Amino acid sequence: MILVADSGSTKCDWLAIDEKSNQFTTSTMGFNPFFHSTELIEQKLADNELLSELKSEIKEVYFYGAGCSSVPRNEIVAKGLRSFFSSATDVKVDHDLTGAALATSQGEKGISCILGTGSNSCYFDGEKVHEEVPALGYILGDEGSGSYFGKIMLSEWLYKRMPQELASDFGQEYNLTKEGIFEAVHKKENPNVYLAAFMPFIGKHKNHPYFKRMVYEGLVKFVNIHVWCYENFREVPVNFVGSVAYYFKDVLAEIAENHNFTLGKVERRPIEPLALYHTTETKQIS
Fold it and tell me: Average pLDDT, stretch 177-198?
């Protein structure tokens, strides 16, 4: 049985496929080695009923995750996976960018972008992933992501720059106070996830001119930094994965038209095409 995982900082989707092509899906919290330990990963896996039920049958694990961009960080995740899925003979951990590229390209050339809790991009040449600019995380970067827009909303609300009709609803819906915001951002774990959790409010008011302008400008900033950096961005499709990309794909389509590039696939969750890639690859090898 093959197990494939696609993990952002907020959520991890899992899809297991047996020899008869039966599929089993579940989800856990997202595992990011910047924030989570091997022990926590193993504990949360054990808490999942389906994964615990299937773990002895899992022979191959392919994990693609946010923050999994170096050997030491990848090992934090891999160690937890190997310990829990002790029957697995092959455990591979790679960057979520690689997963996004494989899911959206299915082996074809293209630019793949992530717009979820965080943001990033890469160029896939058909065999390898190439990054032109680094992902700087929610403090310095993550342009166009949930955490990026969350920071803008909170600062606008605190500075009293948000339109009054939105500010009142925003404060009441999330029971906001300056002290509560500061504690969540500066003292609690996973502040990037906290910031991204405000994205549904934009979705609720997405037709308001204030948010229409904010989303458009934020996504253009992402394109300026993370798409234009590839010299061939007008020659290959620009694909996207992630909830922000999915819910605002109409804005991405508008930006693509205005900036003369081809909008390719937009996947909310890349787990299914990613699993398809691995099952197809396995069949080809065998």
Answer: 91
